[in-house]
Amino acid sequence: MSHPEQVRQRIIELEVEHRDLDMVINTLTTDPAHDELQLRRLKKRKLQLKDHITLLKMQMMPDVPA
């Protein structure tokens, strides 16, 4: 598997995890007795995933001379 294919596959994996976290967060927020600490940790992980996905997508773009 070539490097671009590996990066694309990793992006897909991270996007799936991001979507899963989004569903868990939405479910937790509907529960009035939810754990705030757990919710903050999940939101932080979701942001980290988003940042990582963005960095990987930037790696996929070819360098364009200014």
What characteristics describe this protein?
elongated; DUF465_sf; mainly alpha; 66 residues; 2 helices; single chain
Structural topology:
Layout: H1 3-30, H2 36-60
Helix pairs in contact: 1-2
Please tell me about this protein's structure.
It holds the Pfam family DUF465. It comes from Undibacterium aquatile. InterPro entries: DUF465 (IPR007420), DUF465_sf (IPR038444). This is YdcH family protein. This protein has 66 residues and is mainly α. The protein has one domain. Helices cover 80% and strands 0% of the residues. Helix 1 packs antiparallel against helix 2. The radius of gyration is 16 Å and the shape is elongated.
Order of helices and strands: HH
Global morphology: elongated
Terminal CA distance reads: 31 Å
| Overall radius of gyration | 16 Å
Helix content: over 70%
pLDDT < 50 runs, ≥5 residues: none
Counting DSSP E segments of at least 2 residues, the number of strands comes to 0
Number of helices in the DSSP assignment: 2
Integer average pLDDT: 92
Largest sheet: none
